[in-house]
Amino acid sequence: MVFAGHLVIVVGSMGRVVTKYYIPVIIWAILIMIVSSIPYLGPSPIRFTYHDKFEHCLEYAILGFLLAYAFAKSRPGPVFLAVLIICSAYGIFDELHQLFVPGRNCDPFDALADILGSAAGAGIYIWLKSRYARLSFNNTSSANAK
Question: Is 80 exposed, middle or buried (0-12, 13-18, 19+ CB in 10 A)?
């Protein structure tokens, strides 16, 4: 976390340093805000119906995945709900911020795509984590049975 211009190392339970898990989240969130702050970028090279909603979904799926990973590594509790609340707030803030960027507009459907993308990203992380845990449990059980 950044406080008064200094990087603060957050120490979690059992003395783990957890800041490293949040660095990718912070970098990605900053990149989202930088791109959102650029006046009209011109037509997208990706051209299909609702391509802009797909782009929003994808960028927030990455944010949701990274935040779910950071939360799962650093804090106990319901990861999915926490990620959904934080990413939803950030997506809505991002859309409102675009009201003040020349050539941009605030689109509630973009915010909805952001929310759906973050839910998908968090869901994918949780699914992969549970799948990996089952696979590693099965491998451990097989090794112990021999």
Answer: middle
Residue type, 7: L
Question: What whole-number distance in Å separates Cα of residue 22 and Cα of residue 82?
Answer: 14
- Positive/negative CA dihedral, 17, 20, 21, 26: positive
Predicted TM-score (pTM) of the model is 0.78
H helix count then E strand count, the chain: 4, 2
For 42-89, give the DSSP string.
-S-S--STTHHHHHHHHHHHHHHHHHHHHHHHH--S-HHHHHHHHHHH
* Direct distance between the N- and C-terminal alpha carbons of the chain, in angstroms, rounded to an integer: 47
Strand partners, 3: 6
Give the containing element (helix H, strand E) for 96.
helix 79-97
**pLDDT tens across the length of the chain (146 residues):** 444 444 445 555 544 555 788 999 999 999 999 999 999 767 777 677 778 899 999 999 999 999 999 998 877 678 999 999 999 999 999 999 999 999 899 999 999 999 999 999 999 999 999 888 776 656 655 555 55
Give me the residue spans of the domains in the chain: 2-141
